[in-house]
UniProtKB/TrEMBL annotation:
Subcellular location: Cytoplasm, Cytoskeleton
Source species: Equus przewalskii (Przewalski's horse)
Protein name (record): E3 ubiquitin-protein ligase TRIM36 isoform X6
Keywords: Coiled coil, Cytoplasm, Cytoskeleton, Metal-binding, Microtubule, Repeat, Transferase, Ubl conjugation pathway, Zinc, Zinc-finger
Gene: TRIM36
Region annotation (Disordered) ranges: 597-618
Pfam families given in the database record: COS, zf-B_box, zf-RING_UBOX
């Protein structure tokens, strides 16, 4: 028996790899079973949910303090943990629910549903094995009595009903004969206590007695009668236990019977590892040899080019030196002038004439050169600039032979950047690639070459997060088949928004006119239903200003920081106004009776009081621009051309708004090119809200944030 105990310790210690949590890389603590059947520590699930939640909050409003009466306030971390652990907890519909996160084991997204962590089963079997491993690892460490007065005695048994360990004396005291506690179940000393009966996490008063074959999880009879498993095939727990135990036993027996084959394959793998080591070193040596040859060619060309430049430089300097000496000779008492002065001293006429004729020609030539000064050589070396653009591009694409692996192509239409970047690509021979590597790097304004970041991808799209705002990023992708990779695709350059993305939905309460406007259930799309209602009220329409705009605002306000949000205006829209407005201005607009006067117009002023007309007061508490009939109208400005052809632009597919609350500035962007179309000052002394207005037929769709859930949806599509 002692030998069996020793073998048991060895077995327990050899399975440590199976007892490590894939998230924290430590032994499991209260492991939970995820919907994908992988286990993860209870605390790790909480941390993952908080990480996803915080990352979205950081992107959505990284530096804002939203303090409107209707605003959502960020909760402290402890409060978040309580909410996440609470059954039925949901995140506000403003963002994708934070019950979805990637499983650290398989990297697939898992959705915990409305019950969150409370809907997960504890893996008591795994927990028991981990406890046995801990005891084997600390064989000499005793478990002390929980009820002894200090100093505690070593425990001799643990009560599963009390979830406590006792020494002999304390056990007798707390479990006296003739009482209910005397019937408690006890085992040897342990720190792992689990309930005798497994209860349903969805129906906490019901015990588990069935097994859902479709979901592969235990359920209770209420789950089957009217719950999520009502249409699923279930079996009794005893039948599932018997079936699964038989299958597992057969599989284990099969593996044990193949032990010699496994050892043989392990030996073969060791040989393959050594062979791979040798071949890898040989491949490195060959690569070094090829690069050294390239270096030799470059050095040879470098030497030749530098010699040519030096030769040209010497020739030009010699010409300049000769020309400079000639000009120095024109100075008094030196060179040609000095010689001529000496000739003038000759008194013999015959001798003077004989010498002066040639001298006069030389002086005339020097005089003419003074009148039209021309350097003897060029100072520019433009003809000697080495053009390496083509060679640089070729060297940038330098890679291994593709061996039939085609180059993937990034899909520019499906790739975009918002709160995160979504990069999609297609591969001509999709089935031939095992995986892809997406590379990206930031492009600095001084064109400094930063190193590439790499991430391995199994599919043909990837979400990249934590990108800096207002920066250009380059993306490229290459395909892998086994150990062979294709050359990189052409680079795609995307510009990130100028500020963190601000998350909000349309407010269905404040000022929302459900007679004219139609809001979808997600509250991220609104349409203007012009027609019948307008006809019914046509008898009151005598002048233009009786036809009012229908306003709708965001459900979240801004009180500090920089923020950016984007949306699409439907091409069929007749008249839409978009921008920002302060809380007090909105109250003024929305209090105005619709059948009396439009909140957009002031009868006394005689003109439109919006920012696009004659009012250029920089202190106004709102800014709206007009969009309609597939056009974007630049508001009038005293500093720019007000000609119609200069103020009317094609309507961008996606429009972005950038609000710098602290500086009191708002800008309107073409999201496709991240180009600012219009910018002006705005009074931000009150809480500012995203504001929209529609007249006639029209529609506005808020841009959907890029999340892991969004990526999964795109794949399904």
């Amino acid at each position: 028996m002692e030998g069996d105990g020793s073998d048991s310790l060895v077995t327990i210690r050899n399975i440590e790899r199976e007892l490590i949590c894939p998230a924290c890389k430590e032994l499991f603590t209260h492991p939970l079973i995820l919907p994908c059947q992988h286990s993860i520590c209870h605390k790790c699930v909480k941390e993952l949910l908080l990480t996803v939640d915080d990352s979205f909050n950081d992107v959505g409003s990284d530096n804002s303090n939203q303090s409107s009466p209707r605003l959502r306030l960020p909760s402290p971390s402890v409060d978040k943990i309580d909410r996440i652990s609470r059954p039925g907890w949901k995140r506000n519909s403003l963002t994708p629910r934070t019950t979805t996160f990637p499983c650290p084991g398989c990297e697939h997204d898992v959705d915990l549903g409305e019950r969150g962590i409370s809907g997960l089963f504890r893996n008591f079997t795994l927990e028991t094995i981990v406890e046995r491993y801990r005891q084997a690892a600390r064989a000499a460490t005793a478990i002390m009595c929980d009820l002894c007065k200090p100093p505690p005695q070593e425990s001799t048994k643990s009560c599963l009903d009390c979830s406590a360990s006792y020494c002999n004396e304390c056990f007798k005291i707390y479990h006296p004969w003739g009482t209910v506690k005397a019937q408690h179940e006890y085992v040897g000393p342990t720190t792992n206590f689990r309930p005798k009966i497994l209860m349903c996490p969805e129906h906490e008063t019901e015990r588990i007695n069935m097994y859902c074959e479709l979901c592969r999880r235990p359920v209770c009879h209420l789950c089957k009668l009217g719950g999520n498993h009502s249409n699923h095939r279930v079996t009794t727990m005893s039948s599932a236990y018997k079936t699964l135990k038989e299958k597992l036993s057969k599989d284990i027996d099969y593996l044990i019977g193949k032990e010699s084959q496994v050892k043989s394959q392990i030996s073969e793998l060791n040989l393959l590892m050594k062979e791979t080591e040798c071949n890898g070193e040989r491949a490195k040596e060959e690569a070094i040899t090829h690069f050294e040859k390239l270096f030799e060619v470059l050095e040879e060309r470098k030497s030749s080019v530098l010699k040519a430049i030096d030769a040209s430089k010497k020739l030009r300097l010699d010409k300049f030196q000769t020309q400079m000496e000639e000009y120095q000779g024109l100075l008094e008492n030196s060179g040609l002038v000095g010689y001529a002065q000496e000739v003038l001293k000759e008194t013999d006429q015959s001798c003077f004439v004989q010498t002066a004729k040639q001298l006069h020609l030389r002086i005339q030539k020097a005089t003419e050169s003074l009148k039209s000064f021309r350097p003897a050589a060029q100072t520019s070396f433009e003809d000697y600039v080495v053009n390496t653009s083509k060679q640089t591009e070729l060297l940038g694409e330098l890679s291994f032979f593709s061996s039939g692996v085609d180059v993937p192509e990034i899909n520019e239409e499906e790739s975009r950047v918002y709160n995160n970047a979504l990069i999609s690509w297609h591969h001509p021979e999709k089935d031939k690639a095992d995986s892809y590597v997406l590379e990206y790097r930031k492009i600095n304004r001084d064109e400094e070459m930063l190193s590439w970041n790499e991430t391995e991808v199994c599919g043909t799209s990837k979400m990249i997060s934590e990108l800096d705002n207002n920066c250009n990023y380059a993306f490229r992708v290459r395909a892998y088949k086994g150990s062979i990779c294709s050359p990189c695709s052409r680079e795609l350059i995307l510009h990130t928004p100028p500020a963190p993305v601000f998350s909000f939905l349309f407010d269905e309460k404040c000022g929302y006119n459900n007679e004219h406007l139609l809001l979808n259930l997600k509250r991220d799309r609104v349409e203007s239903r012009a027609g019948f209602n307008l006809l019914l009220s046509a008898d009151r329409i005598q002048v233009g200003y009786y036809t009012s705009l229908d306003y709708i605002i965001g459900d979240t306000g801004i009180t500090k920081g920089k923020h950016f949000w984007a949306f699409r205006v439907e091409p069929y829209s007749y008249l839409v106004k978009v921008g920002v407005a302060s809380s007090d201005k909105l109250q003024e607009w929305l209090r105005s009776p619709r059948d009396a006067v439009s909140p957009r117009y002031e009868q006394d002023s005689g003109h439109d009081s919006g920012s696009e007309d004659a009012s250029f007061d920089s202190s106004q508490p709102f800014t709206l621009v007009t969009i309609g009939m597939k056009k974007f109208f630049i508001p009038k400005s005293p500093t720019s051309s007000n000609e119609p052809e200069n103020r009317v632009l094609p309507m961008p597919t996606t429009i972005g708004i950038f609000l710098d609350y602290d500086k009191g500035k708002v800008g309107f962007y073409d999201m496709d090119h991240m180009k600012c179309l219009y910018e002006r000052q705005v009074d931000c002394s009150h809480t500012m809200y995203p504001a929209f207005a529609l007249m006639g037929s029209g529609g506005i769709q808020l841009e959907e944030p890029i999340t892991a859930k969004y990526l999964e949806y795109q794949k399904d599509m």
